[in-house]
Every structure is written in structure tokens, then in C-alpha cells.
Amino acid sequence: MKTIQAILDAAGHQTIKRLECAPSLPLIDIGAHRAHREGTVLLMSGGRQDSARHHILGVDPWLVLKSRGRKLTLTVDGKTYNLEMDPFEALRIINDHCCCEADSSDAPLKAGLMGYLAYDLKDQLEDLPRTSVDRWRLPQICLYAPSAIVVQDTHTGKTTLHESLRTLADGRTEGGHFEAAMRACEGRPLPDEIFSIDATVRSNFDQDGYEAAVERIREYIAAGDVYQVNLSQRFEAPFKGSAFGFFRTLFEANPAPFFAFINAGDHTVVSSSPERFIKLEGGRVETRPIKGTRPRCAEPAADKAMQDELLASTKDDAELSMIVDLLRNDLGRACRGGSVRVARHKALEAYQNVYHLVSTVEGELGDNQDAVDLIRAVFPGGSITGCPKIRAMEIIDELEPDRRHVYTGAIGYLSFHQTLDLNIAIRTAVIHRQRMAFSVGGGVVYDSDPRSEFEETLHKGQTVFKVCDTCPPLNESTQWVWFNGRLCSTQDARLPVSDEGVRYGNGFFETIRADQGRVPLLAEHMARFNRTWRAFFETAPPDITWATVIAQVLAANDLSDRTAALRLTATGGDQATGSAGSLWVSARPYRHRLAALETRGLDLRVYPETRQSPWADFKTLNYLFYLRAGEWARQNNAHEALILNPDGSLSETNTANLLVIRDRTVVQPHSPHVLAGVMEARVCRELKDQGYKVERKPMFPVDLYSADQVLLTNALMGVVPVLQLDDTPLAEPTGLSRNLNAAIFKVPDITTAQ
Cα 248–254–260 angle (5° rounding)? Predict the structure, then answer.
């Protein structure tokens, strides 16, 4: 495996071209034209604070570094390498390799890395327990080396373009085209920036839970474990549309000093932070911790009262002083001895929604230290952990349900010419898979009032909350399920964690297709459901008119006039306590698989893991084997995994039954344990009526190559032909599958039926 140094050595070298320019568009509009591209990073400075000086746009990265734990992906000139090493050491190697001299311009960044360092990167610096949940599993480092960086001085208006001219190993030169790209933007309309956020934002705490967590911290403080802990709650909501539109809306509503937009590929970061974490320039180091918050008021006298209350607060003064001492110690680990000092303490700063108290701590970088040493010394910022830092981080992980990811990490840039400016990632949202998450929190000390701490988080989140309240409605309808005898939203359906369906997979399900409110094979499905119920629970099946329940669920979800996939699920309850299991019916729109894939049939690949289990006779909730098989097939350029028995004979695929047709004979491959498919049985009856002979016997993968036709069947997609096995073509599909589907579903082409 190549080392990171070898990868960089083979990547050629770069020179920096500098050009002063005067684009006719605001930099935020130029960023809007590039926002759809991964690696676009826009750092904007808003407000009147002295830290709000530069707008910086980075585009078209020639290098990308992402990491989770010690597993890294490094992409250089379009080639991606997987590595395993200390991510900080990787950062140092990149920074040293790409090191260049600062020029005479006052631009803070001409070449370097832009992006974020997630709070969870702390686990690479300290051995800490990890008891919170990382549901989204996003990178802990996400940094891009742009090939073009535009820096705009907000005080003078001067704009400078720095481009990395890449001389590749084969002698070709890349880069140097962004000036023309900026000019090309001038005559084009801005991209669509419409977005929607569901106004019913949900937190991972309720108020009682958050206040209880504050009380727990007070108990830790009383016991002498810690002096202060920063506690946060995470809000989440469905999101659709333009993430850049969301960024622009926030910037116009609350122009904080450290605004950021990062297109990170499968997720986007939008941040509006007021707090500088760490700055390095000319060997001088600066950090600006914020502690103490009061809401702004529309009425001047009330607004002045908030200022006075904050300045007079002994609790906030003590909290800020505590963090200043912590940061002095952190800076001392990387700064020259005796150089660290408090340059400003407890200054009042005004923002759109709140007042804050801010201090400035300075130092001079040590002679044998570099920017990466500085980051290691201070990360994560003490103002958003607590004091002492390590114990505070342990308590945060214990009390907060979700990993913080980028929240309270750092966003900004690390240059290749020994400058650095990172802000604390607060007031920060992450958009991923049509979900938006953002967190707000505050420092808790012994004098903290739990209710006030909860309300403070709401004040800090007002900018985002107001956008959620005022942006266009999401128009995302509630999903309804029939759950244990009543119709309710999916959010309100709750399955006890003690249920054996959750603990052991003790349960089963039926997948059923409905067309225009009709369920052609309902009787067959319910017969199999009842057989499975008796096998699992050894009791009489529930006496329920399932046709009526299904009609209710379809109507509630506006699916009565469409093609829908229904799922009827039963779980075993908790035998230890005698609690009953759960029953529910859910529905979703269904688009035929062939139509979605835009193919005539499906490709198979033999799954290397064989299977034999008596529970394969049923559609159990223990579905992991089939889930992994399907994932494996997709990773290996196939649609379905062909499951084999231990003797190598055919069984089924990960979602369908298999039928092999040869010489007017339909062969169902014999398997000791296989699901008796409802659609499979219906197709075999139809083929018998057409004069085919139906038999069951052992078959092997090689037998498929000599078949006249190979078909897959399941309740949703009906009958589909198989096109190839292990990249070898099978017999060309005939019209048989189409005719069978038309006979069963009473529509000419089920792939287009709605």
C-alpha cells in the first residue's frame, strides 16, 4: 500500500498564480454558481466585529482528505487511496509537502486546506468512552485543497484570485482557468435557491430531559468531578431544496463573523458562528472564547437592561474566567514560554439575536511548533467542552444521546504558508439525505438554573428556528400506519425495546402489492401469514378483517389510486413478562423495479456465503443475511444475489423466488429451506393452466445457462426475467413474463402501472 508521502511525491508539483481582479458579481453569487460541486467552500464574514474581515471562496479541489478514526481516504488529482494512520500525522505530511512561502499580499490564504474538523476527532487525541450514537457516520476530517481561492477584503473591497497551477507527473499542466469561469457567471441567472424545512423540528431531548441532564452536571460539580460542562441538544427536521439558499437566508438574517458553506459531497455544512477558535498569522496565535448569553430585545430600554444584566452576572463572569484559564493552559502547550496573555477580558459583543461576553487570549507559536501542533494542543475548544476538559468531554458523551459531529468542532482553513483561522462550529447545521440537524447548547456551572439553561439554547437557535418558521412549507405529508388497532403517524408508533422482535428478530412480515386499492393476492398472503403465525407463536392468528385495515392505511396515505407496497408485520412481544407483541400495517408508493433501474430484466451474481436454516421458510424480522447479500450484489455490479444451499444447489435470491423454464417445464429449485412465495405459487398455477409441467428438483447455477428462460418472482415486482448470471448472458427474454403479469395483475404492463 502506498504511503501518503509517496502519493504526494507522485502527484507532481504546484506553483501559485496570483491575480488581482474585480468581479462584477458579489462573491456569494459566484459561490452560488459553484455550490452544487463537491469541494466548494465559502467562508463569509458578516457583522461589525473586528474578526469579520475576509470573504474566501475555494473551488475545484485537487486534493481531498477525509477520515473516520484512523481510516483515511486521500484523493489526489481524481485518484482515491485508502489509508490507515493518525489523521493529524496525515495532516502534517500534507502541510509539510505543500509548504510554500507567504507573499507580500495581505491575503490570509493563497493555498491550503479548507473545510472542517469534527468535534468527534477528539477521540484521536484522548482515550475517552464513547456511549453516544453516531447515526449519520460522517467524516471527522473533511478538508479540501482548492485549485482556485478567491479572497475578498471586506474593508478595502480588494479581491485577489490565487490559482494552483498543477504540473502533473506526465508533464501536463492543470489549473489557471477560474478567472474565465468567474466572468462566465456574470451573464447567467443564479441557480434555484428555493428550500423547505419542516417546521416541526424535533430535539433529541425534551425539556424535562434537558433539565435533568443539567441537574446531573450540577451533581458532578458538587462531587468535585468538574467545574463546568457545556451541554447541548440536537434538533433535526426534514429538508428539501437548496442548501445554498438556506446558507444565503441565514447570512442575510444574521451576518455573524464566521459564516461557512461546505459542499462535502453526501452532506452539506452551513454555519453562522460568532466565535473564533484559533488564529495563526505571522507566528501570533489568538483565541476568542465566548461565554454568557442574553437575548436581544426590540425595545431599547429592555435591550439595554439585557446588556447590563449580562455584564453584572457573577455566574457568567466566573464561567468565562474559568474557560480563559483553560485556554491559556492549552495555548501554553504550543506557544513560546511566557508569551501567553489575556489581551481582552469580558468584552460585550452584540449580535442579531443575542449578546455575548468575549475574551481574547494571545500567544506566540513556539520555535519547534507548527500549525498542526497548535491544533493538537487546543482541540477541541475549551469554551464548548468544559473544565477540566477531559472529564467534561466524558460527561458530555454520557448525557448527550447523539455524537456532535461538526458541532463544536472547527471550520475554516489551514494554509500551506503557516496561517490558520478556525472558528468554533456553533450555530451550525448539517444537511444529509434530506435531513437537517443542528445543535445548540451552553455552559453549565453549579449556579445554573436548569430551566434558564434550556431557554438559553432556544435563544441561541432563534436564527435557524425563524427560518424554519418562515420558509415555504415542506409539503411532506404525514405517514400513517395501522398500529395495534389504531391509525397513527409513524412518529407515534412505538415498539418496546423489550419486544423479542427487537431483541432477537422474533417476528415476521408480509410484503403485499396493491394496485388502485385492489390487492389481487390478498387471500394467498393472509393464508401464508396465518401459517407463519402458528409456526412462530403457536396460537390462533388474530381475528382481523385485513382488507378493511389495508383500505384504511391506503386511504390515510393517499395511495388508494396508486400502486403501493404494503407491509404487514407481527412481533413476538416479551415472553419473560407476558407482554403481547405488536401488529402493524404500513404503506408506501411503489415504482416498479425495472422502471427504476431502466432495464429489461435483472442481473444475478452467486453469493459466496451459503445458507441453510429452517427459518428461511418464513419472512422473519431476522433479515440481515438477505440485506447483506443484496448490498454485496450491488457492490459487485449485479441487481440480485443468488443464494445457494450448502451443497451448492440453488435456493432463491435475496428478494425473490427462482423459476427455471426448459422445454415447457417449470422447475422450482428444490431447497431444504426456502420461502414459499405467494407470487411464485400464483405464477406456477397460471403456467399449469397454459399447459406447462411444474416440478421441483435440485438445480445448480450451471443449469441456468441452458434454460429457455429464467424468471424471478415476488409480490411487488411480479415476474421479471433474468438477463445474466456472473456476467454471462442467459437466454433472451421472451414475452412470457409480461403476459404472466398481465394475467395476474390485469394490467398490460405493471412496470408503468400507477
Answer: 50
